[in-house]
Specification:
Length: 342
């Protein structure tokens, strides 16, 4: 019996790679290309444009989608920790997606199949990242537990290593980020950028300092004020906010399984409390469908759908509502996000 590897080394086979590239609307012939920053950037961006962050599998079973319409109850319908590349069928065959622990490891297996080297590292997400705060102002108690994973990618002769994340969802960086202190990349429009800082986990200066500190990397997102149409520079009015923090340490497959279980099966699991499908649009805007129970009003359970970002600014627009029932929700996901139900 083959020995189980300690760290992730799994790679998609040629047929899976061809199917994956077709799914994200890239030519399967790209699989014959040597690893390069251009190939990495194209595959990374196209995944963002075609594969959503998606928690629907946590709340609704396959049988429920295919039966009579019924209320969608938030919780976890997953009975076990997903295995490696568990998101492949959802991404490629069902044209859906997954949350970070499905999307990122599956995308990592695609990259390995294309000849890239990938390290999977765990991360903490800044829970208040969407509420703008300045780079030097830390809001205490806003860092979550280790419930996220990001990828660090390189290849022979690459020089730099790059940070990638196809599982963050809204506000995630769709451009490979060089793994360098102070590295900055611009987004798909002139209103946003991201930077990476090598530093200890930021905390409130009034907190009692930790005894032991290992510097990691913090990703920050910059959003420029709407109306400034030039590429952001030091003089452009804007706001930075923390997004995530990770240590440069590959985590074992078993650790990934435990972190994943905490995210989708534990009583305190974050993903069981909201129904989310969100995908990047060309130009950097994002289309999102979201529901949590605190959104119910007068007994009406309606998921909110809206567009944010891009040239239209960060404020929500094109707002509509979908009943939290399997019948109308399935029809909406088929029509607007291209989901396939079988």
């Amino acid at each position: 019996m083959p020995r189980e590897p300690t760290f992730a080394t799994d790679a998609l086979d040629p047929a899976q790679i061809a199917a994956y590239l077709t799914r994200i609307e890239l030519a399967p012939a790209l699989a014959d290309s040597a690893p390069s920053l251009k190939l990495l950037s194209d595959v990374y961006l196209n995944h963002h444009l075609h594969v959503p962050k998606d928690t629907t599998s946590m709340h609704v079973t396959k049988e429920a989608w295919n039966g009579p319409s019924q209320p969608i109850v938030l919780g976890s319908s997953l009975n076990a920790m997903p295995l490696r590349t568990a998101g492949f069928d959802r991404i490629v065959r069902l044209h859906a997606g997954g949350y970070c622990w499905a999307n990122n490891p599956t995308f990592a297996a695609l990259l390995r199949g294309l000849g890239f080297r990938v390290s999977e590292v765990s991360a903490k997400v800044y829970k208040n990242w969407a509420n703008l705060d300045t780079l030097d102002k830390i809001v205490r108690n806003r860092w979550g537990t280790i419930t996220h994973v990001v990828l660090v990618v390189d290849w022979p002769g690459s020089g730099d290593r790059y940070v990638l994340d196809v599982g963050f969802g809204g506000g995630g960086c769709p451009i490979p980020m060089p793994l360098r202190n102070g590295a900055t990349v611009l987004g798909l429009n002139p209103y946003e950028a991201w930077t990476l800082r090598h530093e200890p986990l930021p905390h409130d200066p009034e907190d009692e300092p930790p005894i032991d500190v290992i510097p990691g990397y913090t990703m920050y997102r910059r959003t420029s004020q709407v109306g400034f149409c030039s590429v952001p520079d030091a003089d452009t009015p804007s706001t930075w906010t923390h997004q995530l923090h990770f240590l440069l340490a590959s985590v074992t497959i078993r650790d990934i399984g435990l972190f994943d279980f905490y995210s989708q099966g534990h009583p305190l699991a974050a993903f069981t409390g909201f129904f989310l499908v969100t995908r990047l649009l060309p130009g950097g805007a994002r289309r999102s469908l979201i529901y949590s129970e605190n959104m119910a009003c007068d007994g009406k359970r309606l998921a909110r759908v809206y567009t944010t970002g891009g040239l239209g600014g960060d404020g929500p627009r094109d707002v509509e509502y979908v009943p939290m029932e399997t019948g109308p929700m399935r029809a909406f996901l088929e029509r607007e996000f291209g989901f396939v139900f079988e």
